[in-house]
Automatic annotation (TrEMBL):
The keyword Iron does not apply. CDD domains: ABC_NrtD_SsuB_transporters. The keyword Ribosomal protein does not apply. It comes from the Bacteria. This is ABC nitrate transporter, nucleotide binding/ATPase protein. SMART domains: AAA. Residues 9-236 form the ABC transporter domain. GO terms for molecular function: ATP binding; ATP hydrolysis activity. Keywords: ATP-binding, Nucleotide-binding, Transport. InterPro entries: AAA+_ATPase (IPR003593), ABC_transporter-like_ATP-bd (IPR003439), ABC_transporter-like_CS (IPR017871), ABC_transporter_ATP-bind (IPR050166), P-loop_NTPase (IPR027417). Belongs to the ABC transporter superfamily. The lineage of its organism: Bacteria, Pseudomonadati, Pseudomonadota, Alphaproteobacteria, Rhodobacterales. It holds the Pfam family ABC_tran.
Length: 259
């Protein structure tokens, strides 16, 4: 018997109503994401990558097709705290310490204070920020702030982690390090991850599957299953296997533009 997918999208459409008329953001998007998958979405700006991630999160509502998260509607899954969400900007409150920022969703959910403290310590360790809980966001580098944002999304231990270009604003050296750390974190937690990126090397390095999307209206033009091992040093990017996957992603993006 096949296990139920964590995320199951079938023929999803989304059309926004605007003052200038309807705008179709997504067209006929079908995708299955299984437990423990690391799926990256890549495509040109405005292709619907983030919109589809927001549909999974119950922040946008499709106008056609079906979408289930853990067998529930996205809205029901959101209410059941099925996922953590990491935005492109860290979004930390400057008047709260790092620990205070991480605790915020736990406070809202009513976790006991002792449990909050234990969870904060655990996730700070996971993202290699042990000892920084009493610091304020302005005392941390951009990369450290983004790690704190990831820790906040992990704090209530949801099985799904949705990440919308979390490293897009960081320089390449910091981005490389955080990519390595994210793979380590994924191996340690066995989360199911949906990851939006504009970077072909990042998508290939991180993912078990890469979903290539066309310009608006967003359609899936290719789904690439990665043959790379789960343990991936940065040097793997120089191998023929990595380069071949990157070439296929690039071809898929080019074909989407020409379609």
């Amino acid at each position: 018997m096949t296990a139920r997918p964590v995320i199951d999208a079938q023929h999803v459409d989304l059309t926004f109503r605007t003052g200038d008329g309807p705008v179709q953001a997504l067209r006929d998007v079908s995708l299955r994401i299984d437990k423990g998958d690391f799926v990256s979405f890549i495509g040109p700006s405005g292709c619907g990558k983030t919109t589809f991630l927001r549909c999974i999160a119950g922040l946008e509502t499709p106008t056609g097709g079906t979408l289930e998260v853990n067998g529930l509607s996205p809205e029901e899954a959101r209410k059941s705290r099925a996922y953590g969400y990491v935005f492109q900007a860290a979004g930390l409150y400057p008047w709260r310490t790092i620990a205070g920022n991480i605790k915020l969703p736990l406070e809202i959910m009513g976790f006991p204070k002792a449990d909050q403290d234990a969870r904060v310590e655990k996730v700070l360790d996971l993202v290699d920020l042990t000892g920084f809980g009493r610091k304020f966001p302005w005392q941390l580098s951009g990369g450290m702030q983004q790690r704190a944002s990831i820790a906040r999304a992990l704090a209530f231990d949801a099985g799904i982690l949705l990440m919308d270009e979390p490293f897009g604003a960081l320089d390449e050296i910091v981005r490389d390090r955080l990519n390595e750390e994210l793979l380590r974190l994924w191996a340690a937690t066995e989360k199911t991850i949906g990851f939006v990126t504009h970077s072909i090397p990042e998508a290939v390095y991180l993912s078990t599957r890469i979903v290539v999307m066309s310009p608006r209206p967003g359609r899936i033009t290719d789904v690439i299953e990665s043959p790379l091992p789960r343990e991936r040093p940065l040097e793997i990017r120089d191998t023929p296997e990595f380069i071949a996957i990157a070439h296929r992603v690039r071809e898929g993006l080019r074909a989407g533009h020409e379609a």
